[in-house]
Amino acid sequence: MDQTVVLLAALAVAAAAAVLIYFRSERTRAETAARLAHLAGVADRLAQAQAELSGRLQHAQTGMNERLESLSKRLGDGLTAQTEKTGETLLAIHKRLAVIDVAQKNLTDLSQQVVGLQDILSNKQARGAFGEIQLRDLVTAALPPSAYDMQATLSNRNRVDCLLKLPNPPGAIAIDAKFPLESYDALHAAKDKAAKQQAARAFAGDVTRHVRAIQEKYIIPGETAESALMFLPSEAVYAELHANFRQVIEESFRRRVWIVSPTTLMATLNTVRAVLKDAHMREQAGVIQTEVLKLLGDVARLDDRVGKLQQHFDQASEDLRLIRISTGKVTNRAEKIEGMQLSDEAPAAELSPAEAKVERIG
């Protein structure tokens, strides 16, 4: 009995457990179904979100591609323009380098020429030739060939660098083209006061001796002018003399040897050209006066011939007047003949006194 009750109780418990399990299972399935439905909705929303996100990504990708293409084009254009500018800049740099090369070459040539000039000036004979060449250039540029003579030999057998052939007065003027450069260089190379004083004395002595030599050699009474020119091819030496060696300049004045530089020599040559032109005009004054007298005679003859031609014109005018009278008479007679009636008994028409006068004149 007890076992049966226990068994029944166990069966009841089992049945209750089974019912409980069944109800729980049904509720679980409902919850699961609800969850599945919710998950399906979530999945749909995710799918829609994914589709929307995919569209946005595609749109963003398209915009990004367009921007990348635009950026790439701008970059390409910018690189092309920059390349062109770089090419132009390089070309300009190349041209400037070429100009710099030419300038460098000119500087090199100039330095060589300066070295050559220094070599020339360091040699007395070459320095004298340099002064003569510069003197020749100045003289030939300012005067006609007939106004000067280069390397002329005077009566005392001295040869002058240039002889200006001017009429008397003042006469021919000699120009010497040598200059004392060594003492001038020593003067500028001196460092202390004592050395400068010694170099200055030497320089003044050299210039003074050269002035005396020019006076003795190139001023010849009756052959040349009473003065001569000492040409210094260096403006620096000329300036040094006039600035610091007044006694040497005064000595040259006393000996009538005028010291000139290229600039002052050109001014002197222009004055010489004016003197030559004036002398030539004076020489031609007599010829001009003779030609003017001849011209006056020609004008008088022309006036006489014009008068004779006027007489011919007056005679021709009178002849034309008489011819007009004769033609008028002929015309009048023709008109009378045309109006006349031809008749044997008709008396001959008599001419009026005026017509008779015209008849006599004709």
Folded structure, characterized:
The protein has helices spanning 2-122, 124-142, 181-189, 193-218, 235-244, 246-254, 262-283, 285-339, 353-361; strands at 148-153, 159-164, 173-176, 228-231, 257-260. It has 362 residues and is an alpha/beta fold. It folds into 3 domains: 81-122; 124-283, Trna Endonuclease, Chain: A, domain 1; 284-330 and 351-362, no CATH class. A 5-stranded mixed β-sheet has the order 1-2-3-4-5. The radius of gyration is 65 Å and the shape is elongated. The relative contact order is 0.05. The model is unreliable at 342-346 (pLDDT under 50).
Q: Which labels suit this protein?
A:
5 strands, 3 domains, alpha/beta, 9 helices, 362 residues
Blueprint (SSEs and pairs):
Blueprint: H1 2-122, H2 124-142, E1 148-153, E2 159-164, E3 173-176, H3 181-189, H4 193-218, E4 228-231, H5 235-244, H6 246-254, E5 257-260, H7 262-283, H8 285-339, H9 353-361
Parallel strand pairs: 3-4, 4-5
Antiparallel strand pairs: 1-2, 2-3
Strand order of the largest sheet: 1-2-3-4-5
SSE succession: HHEEEHHEHHEHHH
Number of helices: 9
Largest sheet, if any? 5 strands, mixed
Number of strands: 5
| Structural class determined from secondary elements | alpha/beta
**Proportion of residues in helical segments:** over 70%
Q: Mean of the pLDDT scores? A: 77
CATH fold assignment of the largest domain: Trna Endonuclease, Chain: A, domain 1
Q: What distance separates the N and C termini?
A: 211 Å
Strand content: 5-15%
The CATH architecture classification of the largest domain is 3-Layer(aba) Sandwich
Number of domains: 3
Low-confidence stretches: 342-346
> What is the name of the CATH class of the largest domain?
Alpha Beta
Oligomer: single chain
User: Can you tell me the overall shape?
Assistant: elongated
Radius of gyration: 65 Å
